[in-house]
Amino acid sequence: MKFAVLDFETTGNQSADEIIQVGLAIIEEDLTISRVYGSYVKPGVPIPPFISQLTGITEADVADAPSVEDMLMELVPMLDDVVLVGHNVAFDFNFLQNALDRSGYLPFSGRILDTLDFLKICFPSLTSYQLSQVTAHFDIKHDHPHQADSDALATAYVLLQCLEELNDLPLITLQRLSELFAEEDSDLGWFFDGLCQRKEQEPIQDLNSHTFYRQLALAVEDWTEMKPPRDESDDNPLTGVDFKEYLGEIQKRLKAIMPQYEEREPQSIMFDEVMNALEQDKHLLIEAGTGTGKSLGYLIPSIYQSVKQQQKVMVSTHTINLQEQLRERDVPLLTQVVPFPFKAAVFKGRQHYLCLRKFEHKINRRDFYNPKEDTIIAAQMIVWLAQTENGDDEELNLGGRGGDFWETVSSDSDSCLGRGCPWFRKCYYHRAKHEAGIADVVVTNHSKLFTDVKAGHQLLPAYERLVIDEAHHLEDVAGKHLGLHMKYFSVVHTLTRLYKDGRNGQLPVLRQQLQSSGQERAGDWIASIDRISEDLVDVKEDWDKLSDSLFNLLPERNDASPGDSGQYVLRLQPSKWPEEWEALKAIENRIHVKISESVRRGEKMLAEYKEDEDDYSADSLITDLSGLFKDMASERDDLRTFMNLNDETVVYWMEASGHYRSKSLQLYAVPVDVSKQLKDLFFDKKKSVILTSATLSVDKSFQYMIDNLGLQEDQESGRLITVQLPSPFNYRDQALLVIPRDFPSVKGSVGDAVFVNTLVQSLADAAVATHGRMLVLFTSYRMLRQVHEPLKNALASSDITVLGQGVDSGSRTKLIRRFQDSSASVLLGTSSFWEGVDIPGDALTCLAIVRLPFQPPNHPMVEAKSELLQRQKKNPFMKLSVPQAVIRFKQGFGRLVRTANDRGIVIVYDTRVIESYYGKYFLYSLPGPKMEHMNTEKMVPRISEWLHEG
Fold first, then answer.
1. Phi/psi at 19 (5° precision)
2. Interatomic CA distance for residues 190 and 563, integer angstroms
3. What does residue 720 show for φ and ψ, rounded to 5 degrees?
4. What functional role does this protein have (predicted)?
5. How far apart are CA 216 and CA 363, in angstroms?
6. I need a labelling partner for 465 at 20 to 30 A (CA). Which of 39, 295, 353, 682 fits?
7. In which band, very low, low, confident or very high, does the pLDDT at 711 lie, cut at 50, 70 and 90?
8. Is the pLDDT of residue 466 over 90?
């Protein structure tokens, strides 16, 4: 097998565009690269400026280049008897076929392989499959990205990396891949078939590297073999050791592995405060800014408490990212420095774990919704099983439709066979549960915390002490979980998994099995299935009708981004139904009746079938079906609760995006005030709850959090301690905050011409002074759009790129990566960029805040909370809007200084911070940067001067 790796640079990506450069790398059968060919090509049309910017290829480069015909005379002989390879090969292949055709050659008819497919299959956990990211990951030298010869050579090295990886996989894994692609009749099928034949002739490889079970190779042993961290018969390693001695030993070991480690005063205070709260059975609110080292600040005392008292400590985070950081970074470090064996386990929501039984069933039956994509995803997962120890979806980069695929193979309680499942001892969810059971500290997330409470504490191991990180999100998550949240697609998924059409869905599968079973009651059951299937088709029609009608009630919000999930929002109030509501309730009633009838019929049939049959393959199908009937019943109940609109203490609203219209519909019913439930569920029940975050206080006071989380009684009785840690950074030297005091003001979410022009001019000047490296935070998407184009034009001559959230393609993570990778760029972001964005070092020098981040006052949740406060004779603006905005403002400010060496500037364009009576709350809540206000024209000279002082 000889490979030719091809790459073209072109004037665009339409078939009418022209080739401007070609690169080809030849890989011989012994896997050496024998030659790299590269040539510019004269396109006969001008090269668009953005292509020159991307590739660095100019008109001058191609002026004397060969024509396409001349280039092909050299290229075609090299394509004889090769397998053609490219990164996203369809693009290059189309250009090749076009060029061959136009120059009178026969089309290329050999095999074609795509390194994108190989990367996905061989490295299912890579965070990006972009060529530049992949070469960086593998340390492949890639001198000139977007130049054809450099790209072709880099792609050749990537292919070799994949071939090496495939060679190391167990034979059974390759056989499964070969089987998977065989039916596709694709070049991948041909390739894997050849690979297997070769591998089958080699002597048997090391059989100890994997566990082989039911035709799959796994990276883990049975979880029943897992031992607790310490032997029960051993003495407690902390007998007679006080916290100070234990901490001293850890710090000594930290210094030994990390010579740069130094004790930081705020972290030392945090160790003591957390330890004190755990020992004294008190609750603690502790604000710890960036750089405190707060994860170690609570993990080190938690391990001490847990091991010494032999009682678990639960740690909860808001984001999966932080959970992963604790797993990947902090726990391995502690394993090295804690002077005795301990275990910290990460335990997520059940849907994050793969169900091996469902996965086996899916690939054996090729139950694929979208064969081409699903085959690649299944292949990724077969390889991943030979690598993963956790079976957790966060490790996989599934792309596009991967989420839908995952939903059909993820673990869930309704379809779990428990000990009756042949995969039970290998099960990833039960492994995680067992590990949490024997661990000293368990790391979970807020969502799972509340799911556990709702499930009567059946999910998490018992705990008396709880640490809540990212605690400023607790109230929000509580509302969503203690309330109700329904999506259009969650209902559709349940319906189509039961019955999609005559051939697809679990009911048709059971029907086929019954037809060939010769069972005496098969006829009755088939009749039941047919009745249920008809009813489900009606339910789907009615659900579509209801969703369309609900969507049509929604007005468009004027400040949201297109496709934003809350672009269309409507609050519904118990006392004021829309006039169409009775008609909509009639549709809901039909849905309710039909689902109830189907569930009753279905459960009766399954119960009879279970009595008669005793066969595992049917057993798993029956379990899945009864799980789907349960899901459908709970969706039916949720829909009724929502449509009844009868609880005054609940906020009801609907959201959708214009992009997918009624298919993106989401229904919410959330308690207005969760403080009482939080108090009952956590603060009254648990011995000690520690809440920490970088943003818990407003104007140096914790009162807002205390009121909203239900901690007033504990505050009065002295059971609550509040601590605001000093900042570890020297903000006076590291951050300068400037306010242009004569800046025009703005009403609403759209700026007038004067405001937009002044803002664009000022941002452009500041961007030039800080060499790009600037993050601009907006509160409204419409204003971001108003600024994006003019700012781009204003900076075009300075070679500073402007990236806009929602305007330039790509997710938040991709935009941040592009921002970090480019030497000079300005990133414009809205709501999701105010927090959780970590851009340390020089990539970010200037943060511009366009408006103070007040929540839109017409958001249903904000409205309802304001009404509640008014009824309590409190001022909603001061009690709700200002504190919420201050916390977001502090989160935004926290993006700037991430390490002790960062220096940067914050510009606040909203003059309300110095003109209004509430502005001081924003400024006093910051950790002490240098603050100055001046006229707009003096700002840029001052910024340049300050940057040069550093």
1. -80, 135
2. 41
3. -110, 130
4. 3'-5' exonuclease.
5. 11
6. 353
7. very high
8. yes
Contact 653, 571 (CB under 8 A): yes
Rounded to an integer, what distance in angstroms lies between the CA atom of residue 911 and that of residue 909?
A: 6
Q: Say which DSSP state 67 is in.
A: P
Q: How far apart are CA 946 and CA 219, in angstroms?
A: 55
Binding residues: 288-295
Orientation of helix 488-498 relative to helix 522-552, angle to 10°: 160
pLDDT digits (tens, 9 = 90+) for 7-56: 988 888 777 788 888 899 999 998 888 988 988 888 888 888 778 877 88
Spatial distance between the Cα atoms of 216 and 193, rounded to a whole number of angstroms:
17
In angstroms, the CA 584 to CA 606 distance is 33
Closest to 604 measured CA to CA, from 523, 491, 525, 516: 525
Tokens 């090749």 — which residue? 96
Count of beta carbons in the 10 Å neighbourhood of residue 117: 22
How would you write 643-688 as a 3-class SS string?
HHCCCCCEEEEEEECCCCHHHHCEEEEEECCCHHHHHHHHHCCCCE
Q: Which residues are annotated as a binding site for ATP?
A: 288-295
Q: Give the per-residue pLDDT at 148.
A: 82
Give the burial class of 824: count Cβ atoms within 10 A of its Cβ; 0-12 exposed, 13-18 middle, 19 or more buried. middle
Looking at the DSSP bridge assignments, the partners of residue 670 are 651
- Three-state SS at 384: helix
Side-chain-facing half-sphere of 656: CA atoms under 13 Å: 23
Residue 217, beta-bridge partner list: 212
Residues in the chain: 950
700 — pLDDT class (breaks 50, 70, 90): confident
Q: Which residues, at least 6 apart from 317, have a Cβ–Cβ distance to it below 8 Å?
A: 323, 326, 443, 444, 445, 446, 469, 470
CA neighbor of 694 nearest in space, from 302, 299, 264, 291: 291
pLDDT at 520 (0 to 100): 78
The 8-class DSSP code of residue 805 comes to B
Residue 809 is predicted with a pLDDT of 63
The pTM assigned to this predicted structure is 0.83
What is the pairing mode between strands 735-740 and 774-777?
unpaired
Distance CA 487, CA 551 (A): 12
- Whole-number Å distance between alpha carbons of 950 and 905: 12
Domains of the chain, start order? 3-168 (3.30.420.10), 243-342+677-724 (3.40.50), 350-461 (no CATH), 485-671 (no CATH), 731-949 (3.40.50.300)
Structure confidence at residue 315 (pLDDT): 94
Sheet with 344-346, strands from edge to edge, namely 344-346, 441-445, 313-317, 465-468, 688-693, 283-287, 720-724
pLDDT by residue (tens digit) across 548-598? 999 999 887 665 555 555 678 888 988 888 888 999 999 999 999 999 999
Write out the H or E segment, with its range, that includes residue 114: strand 112-114
**Sign, Cα dihedral of 124, 125, 130, 134:** negative
For 48, residues 6+ apart whose C-beta sits below 8 A from its C-beta are: 11, 12
Residue-averaged pLDDT of the chain: 87
Q: How far apart are CA 433 and CA 223, in angstroms?
A: 10
